[in-house]
Structure formats: structure tokens, C-alpha cells
Amino acid sequence: MAFSSFSSSSSPFPSDIIFEILTRTNSLKTLDTCKAVSKEWHNMVFESNFMPQFCEKSKTISGFFVQSLSKTKYVTEFISLSGCSGETPLYLPVENIKPENIFKNDIDMKIEASSKQGILCCVRSTRKEYRYHICKPSTKQWIKLPNPRIRYSTIKVALIVLRSNPLQFKIIRLSSPRTLYHHYRKLGLNYYLCEIFDSEAWVWREAKDLLLPPEVYFDMFAPAVNASGLVYFKLRKDDQVMALNYNGEEAFSRFSLPKPALEYKDYGYNQLVEYKGKLGFTCLSPKGMELWVFENGNQSWELKKEVDIEILKKVTNYPSSIGFYNADIALMKDYYEVIFYKLQDKSFNVVKLDKCHKVDEIFPFRSDLEPLDLRMQDATNTVSATKYFYPFSISLLLIVFVFLFGTLFSYT
């Protein structure tokens, strides 16, 4: 993100007045615009005491969705700091949509990707079908989407909101064909199908296949990170990162995770994160926890923070960082709980989970209470054409078969 030359020295207002003005902006869109005015304003928005004040004044919600697999079904739960969770509990609105002749226990709902504009990408499954949805939990709105190639196993999903009013978004889906006889496999390469959904066209399209060396694959437990106008994915085995633009194309060559971190004993406890709008990387180190930030300009990692976490080990056995609420508050997890840890004074808040029995996935989420403007091809009633075309095709083939059989029989 490029900043103007505007600085605090040229500002006619003191910093505390600017801070107060920013907390009174009336929408997330306005706030995101203000962040681009100057580096000073950008840093203010990420201060630890900014978001609670902004959420209280603007009725905005800011936090994380926690997701876990309980037996054979996914369970989600929203967590946040005090004052940032809204007045009513958040849940996935499509969970209450019950199709005819289907029992509630046959329905499952899974978050695939989140955004900081209040939108989630979810997949709702029954015994008979899978269906992709876009939903806004704070206003209990949902949109049914056409399905991609669901016969391929979903590996990663990323959601990019380009505009919130009217809603415009893209979905990047990476999937792995189950066949072992593809020509890429014969060449010894792992390959992934890349599909892009564009809300303006309202269709899925195939992008260029993504090829990986043998035994290198996408990290199943590492979320896609949307930062600096790109989507980043962590790769296993070679400890590299892949950056895709919003058209599903690799933006530049794959790059390694921070070299010094690879040497640490507890290196396995690491995560790609979004930090102040940039790609970040956190890992456990001999001194506690490190935060690295990737600079796209020179394509290199810079060590930004090294924090002692010994105090957390008194209340939890294996704390590891999985995200950042703002510049000073890290989200840490253990197996059965999450912790908001303030880096500056080492204070923390342990959040006991009510619905999730463990922490499998974390989705950053931020939302206002404004209803979506759903001006898009009758999106709320959109159903994949396959649902209607397939039975029609079968019927047409049967008619042709009967006609040909009757003709042949008449000649005999």
C-alpha cells in the first residue's frame, strides 16, 4: 500500500484529535479509505485501543470465527474482545435453511473463507449435494452460488471482496483431481485445478493449472492470507510461499519462509498471518515468539517483533500464534482454548469455547450491520444450471433412444 507524504508535522490537528475523528467514521469502507491517507493514520487504526472504540461508536463487529470438526460435522463459534462482538450472537444464517424431506442431522455447514468486509464463503452439504454460499452473518443474509467442480477435492479457498455496495467479489478455489493418470502425474508433478468465481459474470471459470514439484503440496491447516493485493498460500515440504493475484495467476516466483526461523526447535508451530495489511509470519523461537513481515517491494522478510510468552506457558501448555487482532494483540491458541495476548504489557484474556471442542481453523472477520445490496442476477434464487440441465439431458437421450429403437423395429 502506498502512502502519501502527509505527516503529523503537516497536520493541522493533534494526534489525539485525529484518533477521535477516525473512531467516529461511520463505515468500514470509510475507515479503510482513511488508512490510505498517511502512514500515521494507518498506524492509528491498528493501535490496540482503536478498534474497541470504533466498534462501540459504529456498531461494528470485529473478531474471529473458530471452526472445528466434531464427529462428522463442523461447528463454528465467533470470538472477540469485549465490546467488539455485537449485541446479538453471530451464526451462519444458512444453517437455518432446511430443504424439504431432509432431516436437520443430514445438513452440514463449513466456512471455507472469510473477509474483513463482513462476508463469508461457506459450503452447505446434505446427503445428496454440496452447495456454495456467500453469507453475511451480521444481517443474516445469504446468497446461493453456482457450484464449481465439486467432484474434485477442495484444497484451498480464498474470498476477495472488491466492493461492498453493491457487492462485488471473487472466489479462488484450488482443487485436486482424484485421478492418478493425468499427464502431469506421469511427469512426476503435483497439479491443482484453479477456478475463479466472479460475481459480475456469475460463473466459475478455469484459470491456469498450478504445478508443484513431487512431494510438495499445499499446507492443509494454513489459511489463505489476503494481503497487499495478493493471496498467499503456504507450501509444505519446501517451506515456500505461493502468491496469486485475483485472477489466479502467480504474481511472482515462489519464495522461502524466513531462513533463520527454519532452524528453530519449535519451528513447526508457525503460521502465515495478515499484519497491518501485509503478509506476516509467526513462529515460536528460543526467546518466545517472532513476527516477520514480508516486503513486496524488495521481496524479503523483516523481523518486526520478538516477544516473550513465558507467562502464557503458566496457563496453557502449547501456546502458538495464529493471527493478529491488531498491531499489538496476537491471537494465540492451545488445543481447547484461544488467548488474546497483548504484546506490549504481556496481559492476556483466555477465551473458553462453548461450542467448539478444539481449535482446527481460525477465520478473521470484521463486519458492519448494513444489509447487502444484492443487485446481481437474482442471486438469492440462483441455482446451478446443472441441476436442471442434467435431468433434461437424460430425458432427451431417452426420447432419442426410443425414437431410434422404434424406427429400427419398424424396418424389421
From TrEMBL:
Q: Where is the F-box associated beta-propeller type domain?
A: 111-355
- Transmembrane ranges, per UniProt, are 388-411
Show the Pfam families listed in the entry.
FBA_3
Q: Does the keyword Transmembrane helix apply?
A: yes
Q: Say which domain of life the source belongs to.
A: Eukaryota
Keywords noted in UniProt: Membrane, Transmembrane, Transmembrane helix
User: Which positions are tagged coiled coil?
Assistant: none
Q: Which PANTHER family does the UniProt record give?
A: F-BOX DOMAIN-CONTAINING PROTEIN, F-BOX PROTEIN INTERACTION DOMAIN PROTEIN-RELATED
- Official protein name in the record: F-box protein At5g49610-like
Originating organism: Nicotiana tabacum (Common tobacco)
